[in-house]
Amino acid sequence: MLNVKGIKSRIDLINRRLKSLSATRDPAINHVLKNAGMNGGKRIRGVIVLLTASACGCKDMKKALDLACAVEITHHATLIHDDIVDNSKNRRGGLTLNRKVGGALSVLTGDYFFSRSLDLIIQDDDYDLFRVFATAIRDACEGEIQEIY
Question: Tens digit of pLDDT for each residue in 14-29?
Answer without folding.
Answer: 999 999 998 889 999 9
